[in-house]
Design brief:
The complex is a heterodimer of chains A (523) and B (157). Chain A is mainly alpha-helical and 523 residues long. Chain A contains 22 helices and no strands. Classes of the chains: A mainly alpha (523), B mainly alpha (157).
Chain lengths: 523, 157
């Protein structure tokens, strides 16, 4: 069991790491919510998500797949959907599907050892959100619709809505106040799930919980996945590790749907909006459906030819980050947080920090969005000049959302650079890792090893993105290099070190590396 | 708005109490002793995992020779043969074979694995013949010159 200091420090570390991981997608979620509110408006939102027709369920699922948000970033968007009077079924469909996949993670997933599995998982998620959406819309009493209309009537679209600079000011005000208000509170609630897990599970406690021959694996994962918060990319990389280790595919599916699709704040928010009974029924049905599908796919999706490793490190991130014998626990915690913050996270954290400062200042001055609406109402109505026309907000809003999707496509190419660039990054990481491992500098080697591993994945996605395929031989060499890197990682973690074993692991890596790199150079 | 904050505050208090209970009563570590290694679970390697590609062909052929389709005693051997077939693509990729030589071996092994799956790894005469052909193919490929010599240059590149 973790000691109290470990629980506190480990929990704080996990919350800080989770906040850093969520920062980019939370920022995107806040911006999308503001665009929906001030540019698309109620009608635009209803059109975008298919209104209150049955089409809204698959349409919300599809829109969710395109938008780069996580289960925290989706929360401010849900609030806007609610304000627009969308039915809970469509909102639940969007809430679950938006965090599951985005263009970056979907591409990553398609290059895993069995792309068909990811496609099946995506179809499985559509089945789940549609079934649950229909169920919710059926159980939601008619009085709910009247309540929604009343809620909307209390917040009508102003006749003289802000345009131009006023609208931008309203958007900035809205984002600032959200980032320091309800969305921040929901974010902390979502991240508290990670703190609970870190407090409950000692370091490495989940390494053997989801083996393919363990009939309890999907059920165990269900318990863990409910409080989990995971970004789409993290979940996808965990699926990759699970495939590599031949862990339970059913547990992987459970993790994807519940760990990535929802967090503690998701059922809480729905229950606040629609009552504990309806939300509880929905969440219970979600758990049962996910569990049912997990057990149904568990055996058929076991990969052939992969020797089960008997463990996985994919879920180390949900246990306490600090080992029991860790000296100077606070410093170790700080290091763990610092190592988890990359360039994207740092930039997003700075952006969120600035927005939070703005929000606090606005709150201090008592300024909210209505200030800009009121001032716009007093604007003189002038005849538009030829080049100074008032563009309908739906046009601007649609252009912004399309732009966002286009930007995420561009981001795919930036995040997965051309294979030659990936190979150059790999060369640097490899040199650092192997020379450190050879000279006994295990800390340095263990820092560069995951960098190398991550670039090996990016190399495959980059190749797939530009050439439309990753050849089976390239895929197999990638699998081998990652397997051998993990063996090296194990050797470097041994206490005491065994130099002969490290040398054997390094020799295996040299040979595989040559074949692996050559297979991508010959393209 | 105040109601929302009041609700959230009340929920936060309830949640904190629940959290404290979970943490205090939470799961116990199975071992009170400190770990010697952070990763105690090394990768398990099956006893019949081949040392290299020729060994894979040798092990498969020897089991084929020792079993027959109507031998109920050979269930374990048949399972091991199915394992060997499914491992051959990986073992072949971890050898000095070129990609062009690896492709037919991979396809032959995959095709045979696919054939074995529906029958629960029961070896029909046709599957056995295919397995012998796979062994021949591996032995033929192994006689070719090394495709990926590991050089000092490649070690440092």
């Amino acid at each position: 069991m973790n000691d109290p200091t470990q629980m506190i420090v480990g929990g704080l570390v996990r919350v800080a790491q989770g906040f850093a991981a969520a920062a980019p997608t939370l920022l995107v979620g806040l911006v999308i919510a503001a665009i929906l509110r001030y540019y698309l408006g109620r009608d635009g939102i209803c059109r975008l998500f298919g209104g209150n027709t049955i089409r809204s369920l698959p349409q919300s699922w599809l829109i969710g797949m395109l938008l780069p948000v996580c289960s925290i970033g989706v929360l401010p968007i849900l609030r806007e959907m609610r304000r627009a009077g969308m039915k809970p079924g469509a909102m639940a469909a969007f809430a679950l599907s938006a965090p599951l996949f985005n263009p970056l993670s979907l591409l990553y997933g398609l290059t895993l050892s069995r792309p068909l599995v990811i496609i099946l998982f995506a179809i499985g998620s559509l089945v789940i959100v549609t079934a649950l959406g229909l169920l919710w819309d059926a159980i939601q009493p008619r009085s709910g619709a009247a309540k929604e209309s009343a809620a909307f009537a209390a917040d009508p679209v102003p006749a003289n809505e802000p345009i131009g600079v006023q609208r931008l000011a309203a958007v900035a005000t809205h984002i600032g106040r959200e980032a320091t208000g309800p969305t921040l509170a929901l974010t902390l609630l979502a991240l508290s799930g990670l703190a609970i897990l870190a407090a409950v599970f000692p370091y490495g406690a989940l390494q053997t919980s989801v083996e393919q021959d363990d009939p309890m694996a999907p059920l165990t994962m269900l318990m863990v996945a409910v409080p989990v918060y995971a970004t789409p990319m993290l979940a996808m990389s965990q699926l990759g590790m699970m495939f590599q280790h031949a862990n339970s595919p059913g547990a992987a599916f459970t993790l994807l749907i519940l760990g990535t699709g929802a967090n503690l704040a998701t059922p809480y928010w729905f229950s606040r909006q629609y009552g504990w009974k309806a939300s509880g029924t929905w969440f219970l049905c979600l758990l049962l459906i996910v569990l049912g599908i997990s057990y149904a796919v568990n055996q058929p999706l076991i990969p052939a030819g992969v020797e089960p490793a008997g463990h996985t490190h994919a879920f180390d991130i949900y246990a306490n980050p600090l080992p029991a014998n860790q000296a100077n626990i606070w410093n170790a915690g700080k290091t763990a947080v610092a190592e988890s913050i990359g360039i994207a996270e740092a930039a997003a954290l700075i952006g969120l920090g600035l927005i939070a400062v703005l929000g606090l200042v606005l709150r201090g001055l008592g300024i909210d969005e209505s200030r800009w609406q009121n001032s716009s109402a007093t604007l003189p109505v002038e005849t538009p000049k030829t080049w100074d026309m008032i563009v309908p907000r739906s046009v601007i809003g649609t252009a912004m959302l399309v732009g966002l999707v286009a930007l995420s496509v561009v981001a795919c190419f930036a995040y997965y650079p051309p294979p030659q660039e990936c190979l150059e990054e790999i060369r640097m990481a490899r040199t650092e890792c192997l020379s450190a491992a050879s000279s006994g500098d295990t800390k340095h080697a263990l820092f560069w090893l995951p960098v190398w591993e991550e670039w090996s994945r990016r190399l495959e996605v980059a190749t797939f993105l530009r050439r439309g395929q990753v050849r089976p031989y390239q895929r197999m060499q990638g699998y081998l290099i990652r397997k051998k890197l993990e063996l090296l990682e194990h050797e470097l973690e041994h206490d005491p070190l065994e130099p002969a074993e490290i040398k054997a692991a390094l020799d295996g890596i040299y040979a595989t590396n040559t074949r692996w790199v050559n297979s991508f150079r010959t393209d | 708005m105040n109601n929302i904050y009041m609700q959230f505050r009340n929920d936060s208090i309830r949640f904190s109490i629940l959290l404290s209970l979970v943490v205090v009563l939470g799961c116990r570590d199975e071992s009170a002793t400190a770990k010697q290694s952070h990763f105690e679970h090394d990768h398990g390697v099956a006893a019949h995992w081949p040392s290299d590609l020729p060994d894979a062909a040798k092990q498969l052929r020897s089991r084929l020779d020792r079993t027959s389709t109507d031998d109920p005693e050979s269930d374990e051997l048949q399972e091991e043969m199915a394992d060997l077939v499914s491992w051959i693509p990986e073992v072949a990729a971890d050898s000095s074979l070129s990609e062009n030589d690896w492709i037919p071996i991979n396809e032959a092994a995959k095709s045979l694995s696919k054939k074995l799956q529906p029958s629960g790894h029961q070896w029909t005469q046709s599957a056995r013949e295919q397995a012998y052909q796979l062994c021949d193919l591996i032995e033929k490929s192994e006689s070719k010159p090394t495709a990926h010599p590991v050089t000092l240059e490649s070690k440092s590149s």
